[in-house]
Fold:
Amino acid sequence: MHIPVLLKEVIEYLNPQPNENFIDATIGEGGHTKAILEKNGPAGKILGIEADPILYQKVKNIIQNTKRFILVNDSYANIEKIVREKQFQPVDGVLFDLGMCSWQIDESKRGFSYLKDEPLDMRFSPKNILTAAEIVNFWKIEDLEKILRNYGEEKYAKRIALAIKETRRKKRIVGTQQLVEILKKALPKNYDDYRLHPAVRTFQALRIAVNNELENLKIGLTLAFKILAPQGKIIVISFHSLEDRIVKNFFRDNIKQNTLKILTKKPITSSQEEIKNNIRSHSAKLRAAIKL
Ligand SMILES: C[S@@+](CC[C@H](N)C(=O)[O-])C[C@H]1O[C@@H](n2cnc3c(N)ncnc32)[C@H](O)[C@@H]1O
Structure:
């Protein structure tokens, strides 16, 4: 079951008031949206955006309040166009809860988890043509190495890229466990002093590349801020340093132009209690700001 991360804190910083409108740019399984809908009645609306068509359908079935809830199966990189088409204004707050949700890891069968044996897909949306299998089997080794280093912050990027090159000369790499075995063989036994599973960084890098996540985030933040009403809030929950850096820099650039005020001096993290109940929350960082 999906438990929304930092739910209390999202509500605290978004502070939804009756009749205000919000955008949930990554609606996932609708956890945060349900809580906001309880606060912004009787006429406040939520526009939900979800790239994954199966999750889109799932949420459509769960949240039946059609008058106050609009759902779109698209990328938040198109947020400005979506807002225009749906005539969704004014926007009093936008929430981004990045990455994947539990259903995608546990049930989608798209190879997001290095603990399962599934096809190497990793796409949020089938509209996307690029899959993880395409990258490991057909990309130039230098490009593979580059994404492992840049998106996985993997110091053994070259070693992994060469091990993949060696394997794919003989046979296609099609499944997650096949890739995990290549990684285990290529990496030192005491990888990261036993703190991280040897596949974590590689899987993160592939997923980011497949879904163009960092570019989408930059575009999404810029456009969301553009369509936000003055005094509107922008809240982002990130799960690794690459995402958090983009958010931090975006806020910093806007402070310089006097267009934004930060509400969270330091990023908000999950309590020990939340981490105990929801392991996914251990790396979450929430940053919130208000548009001036
Ligand atoms: C962490 S989950 C959100 C969970 C949600 N807040 C909840 O409480 O149920 C992130 C979601 O964002 C979606 N997503 C990722 N990139 C996206 C994009 N560019 N546009 C729209 N949705 C995206 C994923 O498919 C995933 O369902």
About this structure: The mean pLDDT is 96.
